[in-house]
């Protein structure tokens, strides 16, 4: 059935070429000349910059907003966008100067206040923004976002407006690479309209990016057109983008093949085997800023007592990552060799192989290490994850098989599937698990700091296993106080070497971002967040 | 009749309350915190979770939550959903419209095709047409709807280009999903129609009517059709109720933004206000249609009295 569709589509495409009239095939499907038609899903949250951390909402925000910095779509390096300069002498007090001539698409000037108002809104607990914690490094965060109870201040005391184009930021502690976090959409400036008529703004958000929103029909489509007055140098190379909601990625893929769609960014798993034949080099598959790990409950004495690091390392060596990513994921996952992501690039601090031998499959050494360490607690382990999404059940079975084979014991590893994500989340936060559990991390900004500090620093927000190592903490602190990014990265990489020794979490694989596109468009790339770089896409 | 309707509507209210209460209790005992998991793999900070729990009344006991819900429901307020923070009525109303459009189109095809095919099969029993209907209906019942949907897509959208592959809001894009939904039901209706009609055709009063010399058309329309359509009406009523409750698979294949898909997404996200909203609506529609069918009985068969 699927094969038949494909064959017919090929015939259709061929005859179209012969007739030199692509319009003869496919039919339907609107979209004027020069408009990129792209698959979309309903954003999970209202389209507020500080309240969006998933790809669907991210697509829109990446088109309609530009922040102080922007991550180069290829290298991931943070480069000045609206910022003319960001200066500091002590890694803690920063002076930010804006470039002149930037406006929102409604004509309002982008000033220092556009930023400080937006950041104060994001940080204030009453506004319930998902990414509020990004602002925890700014002085005064505890007042606007206390751990419990009501806010005692409305604005961050660390933000001070000097004039229309200058403002200062005081951080709680030294954080040298902080300016490089500012490319994330949570730090985008907001026009007055956002605050004055919030409901209307949400219906049709207005920003300062290369596109402006034309129309937004929730649940079906959003039309964006190139903003001709856009002052940046990354102007759109197409005349607009039409985002169409697809409830099923199979349908989107069929529509792409039928010529009714130009870009899908989620290839259905059933099609992974065919996608290379179907699309050839119009298929993108590259590491995204997402890593899956198996975290150990270090709050449990069975796992944290001395000698257990050998068991933890041994378990990591017992997992045949290459085989699992090949056979289960058709190479849409890349075996992990550290705790960050290749999406960071060298500048962001990624260095392959920091995990060393411990992440290389070696059944014999694995068995030996686990025995030396005193064996598995209770003679067996269970792996826990929610199994409602992401084929978690399948890879957990495979990992267990791999461990069982390495140890020569069919009962060494069993799977504990949890029906819903909410239940899984609960069990983790209440520390009910006494065995390794899945821990995924999607980066907020392409910096090595974001993969290490929130996850492995003592009592950090997403340190679910409660790993704590004074030496690791010290290296992170030192890294944050370094004045150059290179020196900071080196310290963070040293901190990763401690993770390799202690193995509080087993790196499994980096998740890839994938996309396929029609022959109507060219220059399609994904940025480090796996969001298509729409403004660079050429049509025709 | 008036009294009967009022009593039935009274029953309906009780059914509605019962259904929502059971649903509420089920969602309440589900493990996990619907608000706590909103942040995905990332932990949300406790202060925000606390604020959200208060906002949605999740910190209150079940009885109080239900009480608030019912008093809002009476005022037509279904609450606010957890993820997009929009009014549930605002989220659902366009989807309800889409689902209704699809359901009406499907039921029209269903009735026309089914009754016609059944009629022909019964009147020309054991003829070529009868065998053809039996054969086609067997096939239609045997095919899963996603197969039918995809065959239609590949033939009529990709290959022939007559219809758009997926929904684009036009009337044309309604036809394929409506057919996909209608085909199985139409087959069942055809079989039901054929069976009951054959039975009625053998009945004494039909023989009498024919013996009296009534014209064949009068016999068929007044006596045979009217009597054999009652079970079909029941079936169509139930099936229409089901269609109005959304059709997940067909909606997914044709990218139809309806209720079925909204419900599945809401369940995955534990977006309780949407779940309760959809189910409340589904129950109401079902009960209403049942009432309608019962009223239709009385119209079709004067012997049935509603009292």
What keyword list fits this structure?
heterodimer; A: 540 residues; alpha+beta; D-Maltodextrin-Binding Protein, domain 2; Dipeptide-binding Protein, domain 1; Dipeptide-binding Protein, domain 3; 3 domains; 5-stranded antiparallel β-sheet; 4-stranded mixed β-sheet; 19 strands; 20% strand; globular; B: 307 residues; mainly alpha; flat
**What class do helices, strands and sheet pairing of chain B give?**
mainly alpha
Helix content range of chain B: over 70%
Biggest sheet layout of chain A? 5 strands, antiparallel
Biggest protein-protein interface?
A: A-B, 63 and 55 residues
**What distance lies between the first and last C-alpha atoms of chain A, to the nearest angstrom?**
30 Å
- How many strand elements of chain A? 19
Straight-line N-to-C gap of chain B: 7 Å
Counted up, domains of chain A total: 3
What would the principal axes of the Cα set say about the shape of chain A?
Answer: globular
CATH homologous superfamily classification of the largest domain in chain A? Dipeptide-binding Protein, Domain 3
Mean pLDDT over the residues of chain A: 88
Sheet having the most strands of chain B: none
CATH fold type of the largest domain in chain A: Dipeptide-binding Protein, domain 3
* SS field, number of helical segments of chain B: 13
Mean pLDDT rating of chain B: 86
Helix content of chain A: 25-40%
